[in-house]
Amino acid sequence: MADVNRGNRPLSPHLQVYRLPIPAVTSILTRITGHALVAGIVLLVWWLVAAVSSPGAFAAADWVLRSWLGFLVMTASAWALWFHALSGVRHLFYDNGLGLEIENAKRASWGIIIGSVVLTILSLIIFFVS
Amino acid sequence: MRYITPRKAASGLGSARSGTTHHWNITMSSYALVILTPLFLIAVGGAIGLSQPEVVAHFGRPFPGIITALFVIVGMLHFIKGSQGGAIADYVHGTAQQLTMVAIAIFGWGVIAAAIFALAKMAFTIIAI
């Protein structure tokens, strides 16, 4: 078959060589953050239940929550929560037919990434200052 | 004469089955969570680092107690729906899919029950600080 455009065709994308567009990255991250938030809520609810169980149980949960591991989980959870929330708000806009143009979706994706980091840092500052 | 239209025979047999209800559930809970999320961060952020009696007293107060309860309930129901329909239905199939969905529901409701138990106990605890 004669092909007039043999040299200038897009290459068949393979998952391992395909560079994901930024809206695809934020879409996948929304699912991942939604599921990863399980770690944060389990840690917090364990801490709440321990607080009404016994001084020993609370001491253990509180030690974990305030350890470097707990700090890591809570900080990561705060970021995941802000990211998932911002991305969820974008979905509410999408549902109403707003922001669906590719350029807007790209811009909103960067807004979600940068916004979630800024809000996480703000949350940490407010937590440690107040 | 049959009054049933062909729509009746086709209803619910699309590829998504009950997808619109599911989507509506997620949408409604996400509206609630947009409001609850910042309030929850304030309620919980103010309690981390307190002693045990102070934590009990903190969540025994109306604002932190009610916000935390609402966030855990709405959040976990949002998670159950989102995980079952948004992720598991895409990647797991057959018996494994059903078992995974049951496991998610048990886990989600377990977290809700544990949180409500703890918060209720705190609400009914009178501590002199």
Characterise this structure.
- The complex is a heterodimer of chains A (130) and B (129).
- Chain A has one domain: Fumarate reductase/succinate dehydrogenase, transmembrane subunit (3 helical TM bundles of succinate and fumarate reductases), CATH 1.20.1300.10.
- Chain A is elongated, with a radius of gyration of 21 Å.
- Helices cover 75% and strands 0% of the residues of chain A.
- With 130 residues, chain A is mainly α.
- Chain B has 129 residues and is mostly helical.
- In chain B, 78% of the residues lie in helices and 0% in strands.
- Chain B contains five helices and no strands.
- The longest helix of chain B has 30 residues, at 62-91.
- The N and C termini of chain B lie far apart (78 Å).
- In chain B, 24% of the residues are buried.
- Classes of the chains: A mainly alpha (130), B mainly alpha (129).
- At the A-B interface, α1, α2, α3 and α4 of A face α2, α3, α4 and α5 of B.
- Chain B: This is Succinate dehydrogenase.
Write the SSE topology.
The complex is a heterodimer of chains A (130) and B (129).
Chain A: H1 22-51, H2 55-66, H3 68-95, H4 102-129
Chain B: H1 6-10, H2 19-45, H3 52-60, H4 62-91, H5 95-123
Protein name (chain A): Succinate dehydrogenase cytochrome b556 subunit
Organism (chain A): Paracoccus gahaiensis
Transmembrane segments (chain A): 28-48, 68-89, 110-129
Q: Could you tell me the strand content of chain A as a percent range?
A: under 5%
Mean pLDDT of chain B: 90
Domain count of chain B:
1
Mean pLDDT of chain A: 91
CATH fold label of chain A: 3 helical TM bundles of succinate and fumarate reductases
Element pattern of chain B in H and E? HHHHH
* Weakly predicted, low-confidence segments of chain B: none
| Count of extended strands of chain A | 0
Report the span from N to C terminus of chain A: 72 Å
The portion of residues assigned to helices of chain A is over 70%
In the predicted model, the low-confidence regions of chain A spanning at least 5 consecutive residues are none
Please, how many helices of chain A? 4
Number of domains of chain A: 1
The number of distinct β-strands of chain B equals: 0
Oligomer: heterodimer
For the CA atoms, what is the radius of gyration of chain A?
21 Å
CATH architecture of chain A: Up-down Bundle
Separation of the first and last Cα atoms of chain B: 78 Å
